């Protein structure tokens, strides 16, 4: 329950996450929360966090807005869509991390995105009351035209800490960069990823990161990448097919044994499907389908996890 308790505390203390759909029975009417406002009903969110696994999905749209939704595990799952706010047109995005200034007086999300051939860092400030979030952008890199998608890890709990940017290139290689302050240090690349399509981080530890990836043919893989620069990735195939329709995977922790929730998004139908997965271990990994997520239109260019700076993923 540790992850859920942290989620509940974030909701209660900051009022940033949507009023939970747990107050509405599964299959009931559409929920229209205001998650970016401190006027959100916090008590319902805390009750939901204690009762079931909840994940928050963000998705910048082609129209230049930021949209998001909370998804609660269940059969069927429950979806609650956020109000949108002004962002910027992007073609790929990485995880959004919630943080605060040293005084605890200003809260913001930060993350990385691709626009055309440029890499940007956004800082999106959130406010109490009804004021909409305000996003700011800084260009931090060029030459990213050949990258299909990006993902970030953020191991912050103990030393040695690390933060990495992963980029999947059309040349079939997976690139890794250390995020050092406001800059980046290249840590080389790994060949052999020509047929891969989507990726997201599923584990962050002191000694390795693990990506969850799909191929264009629909296979589902984990890719464990040791922190040691000279060590090659370890690939394990979880499923041989069935995942070809999804353009985005969003993974969040669920339970105390390394389980995960997966929101898999089909851009063609703008729908999300929820899965629960045991701690990943190749073909022996258990996956349960919860079905399509109602009341949410997943119309982003891609879809990412909304989390905090100190939540760590332990799914493999």
Question: Any low-confidence stretches, pLDDT <50, length ≥5?
Answer: 1-34, 37-50
**Distance from first to last alpha carbon:** 17 Å
How much β-strand is present in the residues?
over 45%
Kindly provide the radius of gyration, computed on alpha-carbon positions and rounded to a whole number of angstroms. 18 Å
SS class:
mainly beta
Silhouette: globular
- Sketch the major β-sheet: 10 strands, mixed
Mean pLDDT: 85
Q: What is the chain-wise order of helices and strands?
A: HHEEEEEEEEEEEEEEEEEEEEEE
Number of helices in the DSSP assignment: 2
The portion of residues assigned to helices is under 10%
Count of β-strands: 22
Describe, in plain words, how this protein is organized in 3D:
With 316 residues, this protein is mainly β. Helices cover 7% and strands 47% of the residues. It has helices spanning 2-14, 42-51, and strands at residues 54-60, 65-72, 78-81, 85-86, 92-93, 96-100, 107-115, 118-126, 134-141, 147-155, 162-169, 174-180, 183-190, 196-204, 208-215, 220-226, 234-239, 248-253, 260-266, 271-277, 287-292, 304-308. The strands form four sheets. Strands 1, 2, 3, 4, 5, 6, 7, 8, 9 and 22 form a ten-stranded mixed sheet that branches. Strands 10-11-12-13 form a four-stranded antiparallel sheet, with no helix packed on it. A four-stranded antiparallel sheet has the order 14-15-16-17, with no helix packed on it. A hairpin with a 7-residue loop joins strand 16 and strand 17 (234-239). Helix 1 (2-14) runs antiparallel to helix 2. It is globular and about 50 Å long. The two termini are 17 Å apart. The relative contact order is 0.16. Mean pLDDT is 85; it is low at 1-34 and 37-50.
């Amino acid at each position: 329950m540790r992850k859920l308790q942290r989620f509940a505390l974030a909701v209660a203390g900051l009022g940033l996450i949507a009023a939970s759909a747990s107050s509405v029975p599964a299959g009931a009417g559409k929920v229209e929360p205001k998650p970016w406002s401190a006027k959100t009903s916090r008590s319902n969110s805390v009750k939901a966090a204690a009762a079931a696994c909840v994940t928050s999905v963000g998705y910048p749209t082609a129209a230049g807005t930021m949209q998001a939704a909370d998804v609660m595990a269940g059969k069927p799952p429950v979806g609650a869509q956020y109000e949108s706010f002004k962002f910027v047109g992007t073609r790929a995005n990485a995880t959004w991390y919630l943080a605060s200034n040293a005084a605890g007086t200003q809260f913001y999300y930060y993350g990385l995105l691709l626009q055309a051939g440029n890499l940007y860092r956004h800082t999106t400030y959130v406010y109490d009351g009804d004021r909409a979030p305000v996003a700011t952008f800084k260009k931090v890199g060029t030459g990213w035209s050949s990258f299909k998608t990006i993902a970030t890890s953020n191991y912050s709990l103990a030393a040695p800490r690390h933060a990495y940017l992963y980029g999947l290139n059309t040349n079939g290689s997976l690139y890794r960069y250390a995020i050092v302050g406001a800059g980046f240090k290249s840590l080389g690349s790994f060949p052999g990823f020509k047929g891969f399509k989507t990726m997201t981080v599923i584990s962050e530890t002191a000694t390795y990161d693990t990506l969850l990836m799909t191929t264009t043919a629909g296979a589902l893989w984990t890719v464990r990448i040791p922190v040691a620069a000279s060590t090659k990735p370890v690939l394990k195939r979880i499923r041989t097919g069935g995942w070809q329709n999804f353009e985005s995977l969003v993974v969040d922790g669920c339970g105390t044994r390394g389980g995960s929730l997966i929101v898999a998004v089909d851009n063609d139908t703008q729908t999300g499907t929820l899965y629960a997965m045991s701690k990943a271990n190749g073909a022996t990994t258990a996956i349960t389908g919860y079905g399509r997520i109602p009341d949410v239109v997943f119309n982003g260019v891609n879809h990412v996890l909304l989390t905090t700076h100190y939540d760590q993923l332990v799914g493999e």
